[in-house]
């Protein structure tokens, strides 16, 4: 019998930060879920729910207190480079003095892409994120939304199989958000595995195979949209989300 390991698996992850005043700040409690190869999974949660902490642990930037992370069945050590993985951080701040093209070429260089192919890949990626006409604009002259598009292009440099994106549509106007979601759909069709966090229910709903709801560091639900509606006797995702957040507030 053939068995395919999940692309990503989080097993019993827990994290409590220490504030500057040495207070304990619980961020994640016994977080377990997996993402299958070729699947898009979205994590929804209110502010402070632990979404970015989850992403940073996946990338090896924050060490969990408990639990393990596996990529394709292989345990990932903390701070070990994540191979074949594209990442968009929550606060994306590229070098402001480079042009858009220079910035992406720099990332192509880091990914070991030869110069000629790097030029071509950069142009293609900029077209995908609607930034091809801004290739020669300095990063510090971009709007927030334009910068976010460059961040997204950067995450796809080297054509990674796995994408970990922290709020990929943050700062984008509605048309821009829709374009980014369309782009993620084409990437899924090309076989990519995508895990992302968001506050925007409609986009998670549109693109994700499964949706997780994280509240106060606990994964309350994770399933297909239809199964979430059925389990919670809800009409739409907004209702599911509100019920889960409110039940934790009581
Ligand atoms: N470096 C840190 N030191 C102390 N506490 C932290 C640190 N990073 C995050 N936290 C706390 O951990 C909890 C989870 O934060 P996290 O940034 O993961 O949430 P989030 O769901 O991404 O929030 P948002 O939607 O506002 O970006 C919060 O209570 C936050 O204040």
From TrEMBL:
Domain ABC transporter positions: 8-241
InterPro entries membership: AAA+_ATPase, ABC_transporter-like_ATP-bd, ABC_Transporter_VariousFunc, P-loop_NTPase
Superkingdom classification of source: Bacteria
Any single Pfam family the record assigns to this protein: ABC_tran
Name of the protein described by the UniProt record: ABC-2 type transport system ATP-binding protein
GO MF term set: ATP binding; ATP hydrolysis activity
Keyword Cytoplasm: no
Keyword field: ATP-binding, Nucleotide-binding, Transport
